[in-house]
Write a structure and sequence with these properties.
Organism: Candidatus Limosilactobacillus merdipullorum
Helix content: 40-55%
Protein name: NAD-dependent protein deacetylase
Radius of gyration: 20 Å
Mean pLDDT: 92
Keywords: NAD
CATH topology of the largest domain: Rossmann fold
Domain Deacetylase sirtuin-type: 28-315
InterPro entries: DHS-like_NAD/FAD-binding_dom (IPR029035), Ssirtuin_cat_dom (IPR026590)
Order of helices and strands: HHHEHHHHHEHEEEHEHEHEEH
CATH class of the largest domain: Alpha Beta
CATH architecture of the largest domain: 3-Layer(aba) Sandwich
CATH superfamily of the largest domain: TPP-binding domain
Length: 315
């Protein structure tokens, strides 16, 4: 609750790439030493809690959300050429002339993430966590975490591209989106719109369906949402006392720091044997209150995880 209040109170700070937390003035250690510490903390930890955000997937090539990257043109080229869209989020804000075109774009977006292969950072994370007790908390909706780890070990607190919900929230139900999306993409072919009768609707009230994700519309915070949070809360309750807890912040940006980063900082400060490792390509925030209980690594996330895997193999 406090971290969400922070986001409301300091929104302009976050929007400009900052943080409301006072930061340490300690000079970061050399990269090679940071990697050694990372690997050593993995070995020592009794429990590891991973916070995976957009930077984790972006490091593996899923970098089409904010910009018209090569991967964006690969998957969304026909929409970019026809409508001038630059990045998938730009497409979600675009003023579509018809619902058929909107769903043509949205089905392409969902299909791309639903069927994407497991990306290299997640493969390296599997290797790093092998044999350890862990839990994954993710704000990503792209299904990568679920592809990499057992569903009971993952909390998707911002939704999941595999499911639809009622856009009017008439029901607590969420339902399969994978098969309808496949059928829409197949019917669309080389075009940019889907047949009118294929636009998905709520089976209860008849309103249009919508992906069960936060950020684009009326996100359903129903039973499944609370179940996801409960998984993370239960893991913390059972494992945060009298043990070495390692928090890993992987690719946490400035859109939702209150969901992973700030709770991790607060817990690291509160728990006597906790340690927090933050990895980010663009930011290097080490709060003063945990300057002796954490480290911030500013580097390519995919490279960091690959280097940690190599370090673990050597020792």
């Amino acid at each position: 609750m406090q971290t969400q209040m922070n986001y409301s109170n300091y929104y302009s700070v976050y929007a400009h790439g900052g943080t409301a937390e006072p930061l340490s003035s300690k000079k970061p250690l050399p990269y090679e030493q940071q990697i050694k510490i990372f690997a050593q903390k993995i070995k020592e930890a009794d429990h590891i809690i991973v916070g995976g955000a957009s930077g984790l997937s972006a490091a593996g090539g899923c970098d089409f959300y904010y910009t018209d990257s090569p991967s964006f043109y690969k998957y969304f080229g026909k929409f970019s050429k026809k409508y001038g869209i630059k990045g998938t989020f730009d497409g979600m804000r675009y003023h579509w002339q018809s619902r058929e075109e909107f769903w043509g774009y949205l089905a392409t977006f969902l299909y791309t993430t639903q069927h994407a292969p497991l990306r290299s950072p997640y493969k390296d994370l599997q290797k790093i966590l092998k044999g350890k007790d862990y839990f994954i908390l993710t704000t990503n909706q792209d299904t990568q975490a679920i592809k990499a780890f057992p569903e009971e070990k993952v909390a998707e607190i911002q939704g999941d591209h595999r499911y639809f919900q009622c856009s009017r929230q008439c029901t607590d139900d969420i339902w399969d989106a994978v098969k309808p999306v496949e059928e829409m993409v197949k019917a669309m072919g080389d075009g940019t719109g889907v047949p009118t009768d294929m636009i998905p609707h709520c089976p209860h009230c008849g309103a249009e369906a919508f992906p069960w994700v936060r950020g684009y519309g009326n996100f359903l915070e129903g039973t499944r949402y609370h179940q996801e949070y409960a998984k993370a809360t239960d893991y913390l309750k059972h494992n945060m006392n009298d043990s070495k807890v390692l928090f890993l912040e992987l690719g946490v940006g400035r859109m939702t720091p209150m969901l992973i980063q700030e709770p991790f900082w607060a817990l690291t400060d509160q728990l006597p044997d906790a340690y927090d490792i933050m990895v980010n390509r663009d930011y290097q925030f080490l709060p003063k209150k945990i300057e002796d209980k954490g480290q911030a690594i500013k580097a390519d996330l995919a490279q960091v995880l690959d280097d940690v895997v190599s370090e673990l193999k050597q020792n």
